[in-house]
Design goal:
Length: about 150
């Protein structure tokens, strides 16, 4: 199975909230790296056990979220893509314990389209073992909060 196929299956499982399926595609030695411009606790290490926490919080806030990814490059063991998250804010935004300084926001029922983020996923033996993210300041969780709280 190609790296792109593995990543596509993983992203579809995340969108559907199929957590066991999504986790089964993550290698035991998984790690997350990259540029994340918001205050994640310095004591949190993103490994396999924590790999879905941000996705679960997003799914609670935006039950219908989609990644809307655009693939930019592919090698036999990696795939680079852009994400343009969309969804409707019908659940509570609550990243307590994951990201500092993010308020809890009750549902606003606003449709959101967030600014682009970029990721490279690395695949070995059919499992994702590394994610490198590039999340600009105006995207990610802070971008989500702004999108639902600004008029």
């Amino acid at each position: 199975m190609s790296a792109k196929t593995v990543v596509m299956q993983h992203l579809r499982a995340l969108e559907a909230g199929e957590w066991d399926s999504a986790l089964a595609m993550i290698a035991e030695d998984y790690q997350l790296a990259g540029v994340i411009p918001f205050p994640v606790s310095l004591f949190i290490r993103i490994r396999k056990a924590q790999s879905l926490d941000m996705h679960k919080a997003r799914k609670r806030a935006l039950p219908d979220f989609k990644f809307n990814e655009t693939y930019q490059a592919e090698t036999p063991d990696s795939v680079k893509f852009q994400v343009n998250l969309t969804g409707t804010h019908t659940g509570v935004i609550d990243y307590r314990g994951l990201i500092r300084g993010i308020p809890v926001v009750q549902p606003t029922h606003k449709a959101v389209k967030l600014n682009p983020e970029w990721f490279t996923y690395y695949v070995r033996d059919g499992l994702i073992y590394k994610t490198v993210g590039d999340i600009p300041k105006n995207a990610g969780v802070p971008g989500l909060v702004r999108a639902v709280t600004e008029a």
